[in-house]
Amino acid sequence: MEKRPKHPDKDIEAAICYAESLGWRYKKTGHSSHAWGRLLCASHARGGCMLSVWSTPREGEIHAEQIRRRVRLCIHLIEVNHETRH
Fold first, then answer.
1. What is d(CA 86, CA 69) in angstroms, rounded to the nearest whole number?
2. Which domain does 33 fall in, by range?
3. Would residue 2 count as lying in a domain?
4. Rounded CA gap, 21 and 17, in Å?
5. pLDDT in tens, 59-84
6. Which residue stretches of 1-86 are H helix?
7. pTM attached to this predicted model
8. Which of 18, 37, 53, 79 is most enclosed, with most CB atoms within 10 A?
9. Are the C-beta atoms of 15 and 67 separated by less than 8 Å?
10. 31-46, pLDDT tens digit by residue?
11. Which helix (H) or strand (E) holds 4?
């Protein structure tokens, strides 16, 4: 597994840790000057959820909440949790 760098914004770093605790994983982006990286959901299927994490968003707290919201709403997370209960 690729070791990820720590995000410089503490609120965004906490949101990334929250996502990782639910099975999301970090992926380094290409040559984008704005994206710090991407988060991929626990689904390894082609249609899995993905979100970009920005390097320097205008409001770190707002971007962190957007990350947490996307993680909570991931349909694959619901499917993974449902499969492990049976």
1. 26
2. 10-85
3. no
4. 6
5. 999 999 999 999 999 987 655 454 44
6. 10-21, 60-72, 75-85
7. 0.81
8. 53
9. yes
10. 766 889 999 998 866 7
11. none
State the amino acid at position 40 in one-letter form: L
Mutual angle of helices 60-72 and 10-21, in 10-degree steps? 10
- Please answer whether residues 22 and 60 qualify as being in contact, where contact means their C-beta atoms are separated by less than 8 angstroms: no
> Is 70:17 a contact under the CB 8 Å cutoff?
no
Query: Hey, what are 15's tokens?
Result: 């949101």
Burial 26-49 (b: 16+ CB within 10 A, else e): beeeeeeeeebbbbbbbbeeeeeb
Q: What is the dihedral of CA 79, 81, 84, 86, to 10 degrees?
A: -70
Count of structural domains within the chain:
1
The answer as to whether 4 is a domain residue is no
Q: Which two structure tokens, joined as six digits, stand for 58?
A: 């205008």
What's the alpha-carbon Rg for the chain, to the nearest Å?
Answer: 13
